[in-house]
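Section 4.2 – Deliverable D4.2 (structural model, holo form)

The reporting period included a commitment to supply a predicted holo structure for the target in complex with pyridoxal-5'-phosphate. Inputs used:
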Amino acid sequence: MRNPVFNLSPDSFDGLSETNSLPPRGMGKVCVYSTIPDPTCGITLGMEVPSSVESISVILATEYWGIFLLRDRKFFPAIKVISSETLMQSREDTANKVLQDTGAVLIPSFNDGHFISFAIVNFHTQVRIKPFAQQTPVLTSDTLDSIAGRKLYFKCECFQKGGAFKFRGACNAIFSLDDDQATKGVVTHSSGNHAAALSLAAKLRGIPAYIVIPKDAPKCKVANVKRYGGHVIFSEPSMQSREDTANKVLQDTGAVLIPSSNDGRIISGQGTISLEFLEQASEIDTLIVPISGGGMISGVALAAKAINPAIHILAAEPMGANDAFQSKSNGRITKLSEVNTIADGLRAFLGDLTWPIVRDLVDDVIVVDDKEIIQAMKLCYEVLKIAVEPSGAIGLAAVLSDGFLKNPVYSECNHIGIVLSGGNVDLGVLWNSFDK
Ligand SMILES: Cc1ncc(COP(=O)(O)O)c(C=O)c1O
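Output (structure tokens):
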């Protein structure tokens, strides 16, 4: 039997929450078709539907993936997920077939100006990682507010398990593997925080984690990986050597590759930061997030814009690794031939999944230099009394930078949420920074 179809043209879709554009009551059960590459990643394109709606039948062909928005958690009826191959062609073909079979209406997501009606909020993910991840505290400081001239809220992911937000994504990725996939373990290449997070999550699941680490990674990060039981394999610092070494481990072990950013499960996990943050401080009108591979800001932006479409999402990036800034300016992914910054967690580049999200949902990239990052680390230590690593302190550096303070565009950003993304700093680096 065909599911009832509500003809949602893109124009009417934005008005879904207005009663005159709703389908009549009693049309049947809700049925959402979503072509997503990986149904286990726990994010399914969806929309907020007021409780008066009893039925809707929609096919969602997503450029990326999607979700069922569960702001009030009660709207969660039968979702039919139809998997396709990851390739866009396969997704489109699958969507077209479902369209023909059901007579449903195709609603493309993103890039059509309507993504704000849609939501990517990781309800499944939040549930999946809840038993393991910390709900990190939000700190405020009158002193820092008066320096910034705004109200600041600090989400302390430096208190997350493993010392950085990365545990959220790693945990989601590992606990969404089925038993067969999981037994052979997981592999990644990472300069640190993702590596430690993956090791810890793997340990909690009781499976091996093979971690390829560049030789020049900070000692405390290598020590973290070892502490959590990860098997460390060193590579040369270059990305090519990291990838080659990881591929060799993959072949030797049959483990599952879990990338540090460019992965739906990771993005979904990092999105839980927004879910918590905006519940802890709902007055936030702007979020500032460090950017490297873009996994964190992608998840944060997708979830935050679903909860509050008007929220500003700003990326903070070091001058010596400003590929996101350049990519946004050029309108295409731009990689750098070399990077040079104290923020060792921010030296990676955007990927094919994270770039379109950054392109479409991140309002601006604020670039700061290493001196500003060091000053922000200092303020975190002296005022907030917490140790934050350079990559983690960059959001505060951005808010205090001239580029932000003197730009009239940001004058309406008055309640600013800053993600202090990690605290894995070699003490030597922290102390030395105090002399600079
Ligand atoms: C502390 C810290 N902050 C921010 C980032 C950037 O995250 P993403 O690569 O998801 O953009 C990283 C990445 O390693 C990190 O370790």
